[in-house]
Amino acid sequence: MNNGSSISDFFLLGLCNPPQLDVVLYTVFLVMYIITLIGNIVILIITNIDSALNSPMYFFLGNLSFLDVLCTTSTVPNMLAYFFVPKKYISFHGCFIQMFVFTAAMDTEFLLLTFMSLDRYVAICNPLRYKNIMSKNACFCISAVVWSFGLSSSTFHTSTISWMLFCGSNKINHFFCEAPQVMALSCSDTSLNQLVLIVTDLILGLICIIFIFLSYVFILIAILRIRSTEGKKKAFSTCASHITIVVLFYGTLIFAYFRPSALNAENIDQQIAVIYTIVIPMLNPILYSLRNKEVKGSIQKVFFKKSSH
Fold first, then answer.
1. In angstroms, what CA-CA distances link 181 with 51, 62, 72, 149?
2. Under CATH, what is the fold of the domain 9-308?
3. Percentage of the chain with pLDDT > 70?
4. How many helices (H) does the chain have, and how many strands (E)?
5. Three-state secondary structure string covering 50-100
6. Which of 32, 158, 252, 284 could form an S-S bond across to 100 if both were Cys, CB 3.0 to 4.6 Å?
7. Cα(107)–Cα(95) distance, rounded to whole angstroms?
């Protein structure tokens, strides 16, 4: 990490809201953060303790919950602290550490959701071969690939930006250090870096979206071939939560990074970032627990029955 720049810290402008709303927004975001932590930690506990959830689907769900905790914890506590601090400074190195952790979590989740669609495809389209294809070794290999990609991608993005020179303004128009906003402050030529980042993200995004789309086309065909209505409902219910999260997660990120220039209204980046740093991580455990009888049964068995004894 290069700190040859003339600035030693960054000033985060935070959420550009009227001061009279600080207490309200602080309370709302604090409650959402607590719900996010509790929900995802509960999912992590039950997927590791309850043998009834010893399947690839819940193995990946545990990974997803850990990523959500990592994503929110890297950004939200700082944002909450800055609500009542007049000088919202973050050190040069602290900024890039935050960027690295956040980017790693997001890139890993991006790929994890893609492989979760593969899991649903195998479970519905090849149920007899499901245990052989999605074996423990296969799941661990997929997890290793996903995490390795997220960490290496984040290392590349973060190191590329950290090598730039920052000799002008140190004011980041955001509530945390996100790559595009930090890169915009550099006094180096960032055109090549921006092109590389956009092209790599676009190629990866298109591959993942096409893969998920094709998976669900085959899943839909397989569901329509099921004769019983109850069988169709059961098959669809196992995919509904994942589809919802994919649409929210991918849709928000695509809009954030590839929206038309006409929609580049002031402070829209902060509003969109709130969705993928706070709202979606909070919704993940809620959607999976509300729509899944096995998860609800496991929560009751692990927590409420133990407490009753």
1. 44, 31, 18, 23
2. Rhopdopsin 7-helix transmembrane proteins (1.20.1070)
3. 92
4. 13, 3
5. CHHHCCHHHHHHHHHHHHHHHHHHCCHHHHHHHHHCCCCEEEHHHHHHHHH
6. 158
7. 18
Tokens of 49: 């303790």
> Where residue 138 falls among pLDDT bands split at 50, 70, 90?
very high
Q: Is the pLDDT of residue 75 over 90?
A: yes
Domain locations in the chain as residue ranges:
9-308
Higher pLDDT, 38 or 165: 38
Kindly state the tokens that stand for 72: 């929110």
Q: Tokens standing for 213?
A: 């789309």
Phi, psi of 90 (to 5 degrees): -135, 135
Q: Is the pLDDT of residue 173 over 90?
A: no
Distance CA 309, CA 306 (A): 5
SS3 at position 11: strand
Q: Is the pTM higher than 0.85?
A: yes
